[in-house]
Design goal:
There is one protein chain. By secondary structure, the chain is an alpha/beta fold. The chain has 2 domains: 5-219, 3-Layer(aba) Sandwich (Rossmann fold), CATH 3.40.50; 226-290, Alpha-Beta Plaits (2-Layer Sandwich). The protein is built from 11 helices and 14 strands. The strands form 3 sheets. Strands 5-6-7-3-8-9-14 form a 7-stranded mixed β-sheet, with helices on both faces. The protein has a 4-stranded antiparallel β-sheet with strand order 11-12-10-13, covered by helices on one side. A 3-stranded antiparallel β-sheet has the order 2-1-4, covered by helices on one side.
Amino acid sequence: MRSEFLIEAEGLTKVYSTGRVAVEQLDLAVRNGEVYGFVGANGAGKTTTLRMLVGLLRPTSGTALVMGYAPGTPEGLRRTGTMLETAAFYPHLSGRANLRILAHYIGCDEKTISRALERVDLGARADDRLKDYSLGMRQRLALAAALLKEPTLLILDEPTNGLDLAGIVEMRTLIRSLGDQGHGVLLSSHQLNEVQLVCDRVGVIRNGRMVAEGPVAEIRRLGERSELRVRVGDVDAAVKCVSSMPEIGTVSVVGDTADVLSVVADRMLVPDINRALVTSNIDVHELRIVERSLEDVVLQLTASGEATRC
């Protein structure tokens, strides 16, 4: 394993006995100290990939290393915390008692259990029975279980399921802090706004194939032309000027004050648009690119299937 990578997968493929291809020729690498978002529609292959990486499924072909070892081996699992799908706990026991059972097999002491509970904000409810926990509290307990080993790598599948807004914000802060503290985090989530806020890099999977991968900021710049907003002094003259330029898409007037143009064009044309307006003696008060959200780009990529690596 290269020292900066905690996960390295090449050509990872899973074909079920029915012939269905769940994951196909997937390359994936997660660096030490980064939060990596793994996103795509339901059935795209995210959970299948995670299950292969922790040794719960055997790949049909391809290779993977987790912490430098084959998936599922004790050496790799010893430094990996996992939270996959719905965690199973004993409903008649408290949250703390459930963690004690896991800690017995891991070899953790009581201080480690308390520290994990506090990190997920369950300290005050740690001795309540699990059957009295909300779904969000059970999610937090599952994350606490993943943190018991104080792992170098965390593999998390939908960690914000069932959390209210405050819980989502707390989970986001915790996950981001884990990355900042040097942990590697592979995070699968449908909460694309949260992925945008917390992740360093993103991989977008569609029908088992990676269709885009790169830093969040660069992924957000992929795809269709950008929308530019231009606030001008003479809107009629500006519409005529910009519309006459080559390689410009639609030009329309937007905003309550009717002095803002919406221009669909390649962002590389921004200097040319500004220059043309100034040359035509049209005052330019503001010119900005309307940033697309990660959600917008992922929806486009998973619909089109175009492949891009940043």
